[in-house]
Amino acid sequence: MTHSVHTTASAARRTLPDDGLTGRAGRARREPMAVRALRDDTYLVDTEHDSYVVDLDARSCECPDHTIRHARCKHLRRVAMEVNEGLVPPPGERDGVCAVCGDPIFVPVGPGSYLCGAHRPARGEFVRDRESGSLLLVTRVTTERADERETEDGTLIADYESNREYGGHEPVVEAVYVGRAEAADGRLNVAGQRRYSFPASRLRRVPADVTPNLPVVGV
């Protein structure tokens, strides 16, 4: 059977740090193996002697230890270990890169633009506009690219003059201007405020201790 490899990971076999485990679990860590994610959410495990396809969701492996003895073989264990340790993507995800810094990340299978933890603001987080210096509050982080997302008048986010210094491939972040929101009863109410869209890197994350110390409602 032919499988389409979904990652660009090196085929070089490696071992995992020995955690003092014994039996199949110990062999899963100590024996050199290369694990690669395939397009159908299965994994190809290459050993010194053969290669097998593992399906984590089905808890199955093509090796004799699993198919004949019905054991949770070392190949199944090794894939689970590499997924848990962030070495290969889990089922339903693929290798990707952060649209801002290019660092490798795991992202959902399918189209879209994504951010790493360092560059992905949280909903309700304060950020600052690099162009105007204004303080904004993030209301949504999308997976739509700035060169694909249009405003109500049909203009692409990436085509606005103020956005041309930022990557059109970046995901669009929606936010409201804090200065236009009402502060009442000790809370900042952004309900009903217009949501503006920006390429992700135009909005700079700021330390929490320099932002308004007010609970926010209406996000």
Automatic annotation (TrEMBL):
Region (Disordered): 1-29
Domain SWIM-type: 52-84
Record-level Gene Ontology MF annotations: zinc ion binding
TM region(s), chain numbering: none
Residue spans of biased composition, Polar residues class: 1-10
Keywords on record: Metal-binding, Zinc, Zinc-finger
PROSITE patterns tied to this protein: ZF_SWIM (PS50966)
Name the UniProt record assigns to this protein: SWIM zinc finger family protein
Organism, scientific name: Halorarum salinum
